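Entry 12.
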Amino acid sequence: MFKAILIEKDEAGYRARLAELDEAALPAGDVTVRVAYSTLNYKDGLAITGKGPVVRRFPMVPGIDLAGTVEASSHAGVNAGDAVVLNGWGVGEGHWGGLAQRARLQGDWLVPLPAAFSPRQAMAIGTAGYTAKLGVMALERHGVAPEHGEVLVTGANGGVGSVAVAILAQLGYTVVASTGRPQETDFLKALGAAEVIDRAQFAAPGKPLAKERWAGAIDTVGSHTLANVCASMRYRGTVAACGLAQGMDFPASVAPFILRGVTLAGIDSVMAPRAERLEAWQRLARDLDVAKLELITSEIGLGEVIDTAHRLLDGKVRGRVVVDVNR
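Predicted 3D structure (tokens):
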């Protein structure tokens, strides 16, 4: 038997609860993992609360991340005793996920835990940090260098945003953090932000083109915010789009793209190829100051997940939430 968060939907409605399950109930897979830590991401919050159409089958164990140790494997590239990390692949949406003490998965989904990180640290990074690193890599691929000017991070208090601020600052970029929580200014500057600005200047409908400012940007918000960020990019700047906290819409014009040569790079962390995942985790081991993870991270037990999911969606959680599934 093992403990897990279980989401059910039937005639009685949609609900999430802490349950004790039999290992025989685990889904098909060629690797069984003893989970040490998981995380609580925005997508997990949507799944647990039912406020977004995340879960595709029921019952479902949520959790798009996990770190743990392989207990059994019939996969040629994975051995019992291996320390592994999983991000995405539809886990926690269509396949039982990481907010549990056991998981059965496909070996191809797993990445070796980098030696630089403990399982807890890997989950302090989690999908949010891995997504942030994919965004930074996209800026680099499109030629955005520290000497080219300021880089904006929207939603900077969130999981993706806070790690993005820390990584960019570590790499020498001048980072401007956008947030709706001015009381977190000191926190964001401790992560490396040179300036903290109010998100309100991006949140409402804006002009097709605005004054050029940003050499690059990582946007976790979408909607009018993303449109306004694109409108204020410098010539041949790049925006990495990886979130939808404000909305899925994109009420923009083509002006920034055809008049300033702006690039809008979409970041998909769920189905990213294995080679990109390995590169991202290798780069995280080199480019992220592990000491800053503690500034970003809070820890909860499995029994606190459901309440924390509601707080997360209400904007009352900053940074990363690590879940010790064994307490």
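Annotation: The radius of gyration is 20 Å. The longest strand covers residues 2-10.
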